[in-house]
Structures are given as structure tokens and as C-alpha cells.
Amino acid sequence: MLSSSLVIQMPPSMQMTDEQFFEFCQVNRELRIEMNQFGEISIMPPTGSETGNRNFNVALQLGVWSEQDGTGICFDSSTGFTLSTGAKRSPDASWMKLERWNTLSSEQQQSFAPICPDFVVELRSPSDNLQPLKDKMVEYMKEPGVKLGWLIDRKYRRVYIYHPGQPEECLESPDKVSADPALPRFVLNMSKIW
């Protein structure tokens, strides 16, 4: 098993269209694949069981809140989005207001939707380097419509909070993290995440 991402650089003459990249991902469903704005493809190893469980707990708590709130929808870690830069990213968990989701055509919703969610979460795996994840969070914060991002670093028990146009904020070993006002009344209980 790979211990970190494998980055593949494609020559300009071999760059994939959005449709080709989507098809490439569909025939390689067992892999976690992203593409940056320069066309470099990252193939990431599957998460370990413990990280998968922690990611599930993030998604579960977000999903329960979303069902009660009723104003948006959640996405899991296998969902790809096409950012305005052309990058294709898959946050570990995300949420989007229905009014934004419903502006997309059915075809756009079935592919890597050309939109960034309102809220994105990345969970650092033991094999992940922190800086590339921070860079990804900064990339999300430049996208239209994004309101909030969390980067959860279990190794050092830190949660990095991102808002568009604002400096990163770091919480040290919090018991709970609130998403107010972007996601009213959503509070992530960290006891099953650490």
C-alpha cells in the first residue's frame, strides 16, 4: 500500500478534458484521485481503518445535522467537485445549500459538479503531510460560494478553521467545534474524532 500520494505529471498534449478525467476516475473507482489546476494527477492511498472510522464520524455528525436543518445536502469523501481553477477535489466531508445545488443541471450533478461546497472538511491521515492539506484549504477558500473549511489534524489534536479572505485560525485540542454562523447550530463533537 502507498504511504503517501503519487503525483503524475501529464504532458500538455495528453491533458484530459473534464469528461475524460471523470471517465478515468470511474474506471479506477478503487483509487482516490484528484487533479490540481495544473493538470497534475494525485493518486492517494486508501485511508487506514482508524482514519476511515474517524472520517465516518465527521460525516455522520454532519449528515444528522443536515437532515435536521433541511437547507442543504452532504457529500462523502468519494465526491468530486470541479473548482473554478479546473482543479478536481474531493473533500473528506462537505455540505452545500440546496439553492446552490439546484442551480446545476442534472448532468452536472452526476459528474464532478462545477461548484465548491459551502463547507469543506479535510481530515489528516497519519501518512499525510500537513502543508499540502493547508494549501488545499486555501484553494477552497478562494472559490465562489464557500463559507467555511475545517482541517482536522488528529496527530496534534488541532483544528484549523478557514474563512474566505481571513487568516487561518487554530484550535488546540477542542472538545467541540462550532460551524455557526455558516452552518447554524452545527457543532462537531470531537470525542469520536480524536
Note down, in words, how this protein is organized.
The protein is of the alpha+beta class. Helix content is about 25%, strand content about 25%. The protein has 5 helices and 13 strands. The chain has helices spanning about 20-25, 50-70, 100, 105-110, 130-140; strands at about 5-10, 30-35, 40-45, 70-75, 80, 90, 95, 120-125, 150-155, 160, 170, 175-180, 185-190. Strand 8 (about 120-125), helix 5 and strand 9 form a beta-alpha-beta unit. The longest helix is centred in the first third of the chain and has 21 residues, at about 50-70. The two termini are about 25 Å apart. The mean pLDDT is about 95.
Percent of residues in β-strands: 25-35%
The string of secondary-structure elements, in order, is EHEEHEEEEHHEHEEEEE
Main beta sheet, described?
Answer: 6 strands, mixed
Question: What's the tally of helices?
Answer: 5
Described by the principal axes of the CA atoms, the overall outline is globular
Mean pLDDT reading: 94
Tell me the helix content.
Answer: 25-40%
Number of strands: 13
Task: Supply the helix-strand structural class.
Answer: alpha+beta
CA(first)-CA(last) distance: 24 Å
Compute the gyration radius: what is it?
16 Å
Spatial strand sequence of the major β-sheet: 4-7-8-9-10-11
Low-pLDDT residue intervals, each spanning 5 or more residues: none
State the gist of this model.
By secondary structure, this protein is of the alpha+beta class. It has helices at about 20-25, 50-70, 100, 105-110, 130-140, and strands at about 5-10, 30-35, 40-45, 70-75, 80, 90, 95, 120-125, 150-155, 160, 170, 175-180, 185-190.
